[in-house]
Amino acid sequence: MMLFPRFLILSTLAFSQFTASLNITRSKPHAALAPSPLPPSHAHSDGEAIITAFQTLGRTTPWTWVQNITFEGDTYEPEGIVRLGADRYIVSAGEYTAPTVPYNKTINGTDRTAGAGFAHLIVFGGDGSRIADATVTREGDIEYHNGGLDWDGENLWGAIAQYRPNSTAYVYKADPTTLEPKTVVHYDDHLGGVVHDKTLNSITALNWGSRNATTWHLHPHSPPSAPATPVRNPSFYIDYQDCKFLGHSPTYSGRPIMLCGGVSTLVSNGNVFYLGGIALVDVEMMVPVSEVPITLTSARGVPLTQNPIDASVSKEGSLRLYLLPDQRESTLYVIEASG
Ligand SMILES: *[C@@H]1O[C@H](CO)[C@@H](O)[C@H](O)[C@H]1NC(C)=O
Ligand SMILES: *[C@@H]1O[C@H](CO)[C@@H](O)[C@H](O)[C@H]1NC(C)=O
Ligand SMILES: *[C@@H]1O[C@H](CO)[C@@H](O)[C@H](O)[C@H]1NC(C)=O
Ligand SMILES: *[C@@H]1O[C@H](CO)[C@@H](O)[C@H](O)[C@H]1NC(C)=O
Ligand SMILES: *[C@@H]1O[C@H](CO)[C@@H](O)[C@H](O)[C@H]1NC(C)=O
Ligand SMILES: *[C@@H]1O[C@H](CO)[C@@H](O)[C@H](O)[C@H]1NC(C)=O
User: Fold this and answer.
1) Ligand 4 test: best mutation among 110, 162, 166, 191, most atoms within 8 Å of CB?
2) 274 has pLDDT over 60
3) Rounded to two decimals, what is the model's pTM?
């Protein structure tokens, strides 16, 4: 790692006393971080095609393995992924340097110690080669858990939180050509799974276990408006981990729809099993409008939908998913719905 040049940029933020940090290692110093021109968001390209393809899915849909791409180097715990065309993937990840320890009781509303670590944004080429690894928090920052990632055609959107429930977090945006994070809003709860609705210019983020969603309206010349009361997530089939805004869908009467992937851990008579799945979710109501389980696992036995998910549609109109379930040494699994 130290063979590569490091650049340190500290940025001060508009509308906020919080500062973000960028400490980037470029493994391929001459390779661009993002393609030019930048690809459009799902909402402005294939969002409705993804929703249409989703309508054909069911519990018995056969999924075929299209490609397994080994991602080079340490991926820490991957939490979110954005596919910027065929040749760039940006992964949000958390590096943990000290574990959280259960309190075994509730202290200050939470249940464990803060632990320690760093939030990362890592860039990979289409063949899995490592292009850059940006550490976007500072040593000692209590907020270091980097949740799911969204792409709006201009900025990446993410949330960096304390790695414990009912804590604190901030939503950031980052230009993919620099990876410099800019804090957008700070909040008194754990946050992840952010999506940006450019039409309404609102951001929605999920809390610990995706039990609540909070929406902020963004304004060009003033801070985001105070969040409305969180919306309770009525679904307990899976906890959403990473979501992608797909647009205001004609299929669903113009409702704002996101694609989410996730897992739940279910216990029955002392036996633990993991349910993985994907869902189309109404961003405002948090109601899943379509849900499908995915039982495939990685070569290491982890449910494919454990964490990062992105999607595209094949030439034939089939849904393709891009999934990165494993920690530290990761394979990107590209699967396609057939039949
Ligand atoms: C950059 O981030 C790494 C963690 O990935 C950390 O060990 C190192 O101290 C950071 N460097 C600076 C100058 O902050
Ligand atoms: C909570 O319990 C676990 C298991 O018994 C133990 O390892 C841990 O240290 C306890 N936490 C604290 C803060 O005492
Ligand atoms: C709980 O909050 C209080 C007040 O902010 C603080 O002094 C205390 O250290 C916190 N306790 C723990 C275990 O973090
Ligand atoms: C979150 O923590 C606050 C205190 O910091 C407490 O009042 C509240 O009940 C907690 N909420 C939940 C859902 O645990
Ligand atoms: C979710 O938000 C509601 C308010 O809408 C609150 O009562 C509840 O405690 C929150 N649940 C969690 C798990 O944070
Ligand atoms: C990809 O990995 C999965 C899980 O180990 C395996 O079943 C599949 O055959 C692999 N597919 C390809 C195209 O290598």
Assistant:
1) 166
2) yes
3) 0.93
